[in-house]
Specification:
This is Alkaline shock family protein YloU. It comes from Curtobacterium salicis. This protein has 105 residues and is an alpha+beta fold. It has two helices and three strands; from the N terminus they run αββαβ. It has a three-stranded mixed sheet, with helices on one face. Strand 1 and strand 2 form a beta hairpin. It is elongated and about 50 Å long. The chain starts with 15 loop residues before the first helix and ends in an 8-residue tail after the last strand. The relative contact order is 0.20.
Length: 105
């Protein structure tokens, strides 16, 4: 018997909580924001996964282009990581993240 995906009986299930955490991490990375400031809701888009993402974007970028690019990259990366078909990714920008300036006291 040879090894491979079909060789082991059973299936792998990804919980909603794990899927939400995965999407949050990918979206935060693509937006350049801390994951704790990114919110994610999952839905159904005709059998595919629908992502509703809310969070800030890194400063110094074209906001519309950043959101458009991030949505496409999040769809692609989440699909690759989870093996699920992602139908849509909607991103609502809530602010701008700036790098922290260090203070000297």
């Amino acid at each position: 018997m040879t090894g491979g995906p079909g060789a082991v009986p059973g299936r792998v299930e990804i919980t909603t909580r794990a899927l939400t955490s995965c999407v949050r991490a990918v979206a935060a990375e693509r937006l350049g924001a801390p994951a704790k400031r990114v919110r994610v809701e999952l839905g159904d888009a005709r059998g595919a996964l629908a992502l509703d993402i809310t969070g800030p974007v890194a400063a110094g970028t074209d906001l519309v282009q950043a959101a458009t690019t991030a949505a496409a990259e999040v769809r692609s990366r989440v699909s690759a990581l989870t093996g699920r078909r992602v139908g849509s990714a909607r991103i609502e920008l809530t602010g701008i993240v700036r790098e922290h300036d260090t203070r000297v006291r």
